[in-house]
Amino acid sequence: PVNPEEDECVKETYTDPNHAEYNIKVPPPPPVQKPNPPTLADLGASIKLMPLSVWKKLGLPDLIPTQMTLELANRAICTPDGIARDVFVPVGKFTFLADFVVVDYESDPRVPLILGRPFLRITRALIDVHGEEMILRDEDERLTLNMKQETVSYSN
Predict the structure, then answer these.
(1) In sequence order, what are the residues at sequence separation of 6 or more whose Cβ sits closer than 8 angstroms to the Cβ of residue 34?
(2) 33 domain-assigned
């Protein structure tokens, strides 16, 4: 836990009382200084995104409201339509549960969902970059995804 009195980087922490895992830490504004060279900052934020159109097409239960805001890669700020909880995600012979942040955006039809690091952790994924494959595990079973082709195939 971060204590605002001890950590000058954190001004406030906003929490959605219905979902304790969605905390947003707001740093104080940076002091005005001479311009710095461009930098890339990965703050470790990782969520699973689903377009609103896919949520409607799947006929999932009502979205859970959220006051979260997202800063996209192009620096645009968007407000999600809500959270879709406990969505079944079939991957080969496995089915995993995942929560998605639902946003009204146009997705690439070839990639309707964006699965982040939390999904890879849930599936206990092992990624072999050199061998161009990814292994998903569920208890004693495993699924190997061949990443060499443009269309991902899998073998048991």
Answers:
(1) none
(2) no
Distance CA 92, CA 72 (A): 30
CB 99 within 8 A of CB 83: yes
Q: Is 152 helix (H, G, I), strand (E, B) or coil?
A: coil
Query: pTM, whole model, 2 decimals?
Result: 0.53
Q: What is the mean pLDDT of the chain?
A: 69
**Domain count along the chain:** 1
Query: pLDDT for 90-140, tens place per residue?
Result: 777 778 788 888 988 877 666 666 666 666 766 777 777 777 787 888 778
DSSP letter string, 71-98: E-TTS-EE--SEEEEEEEEEETTEEEEE
Q: Is residue 12 part of a domain?
A: no
Residue 111, amino acid: V
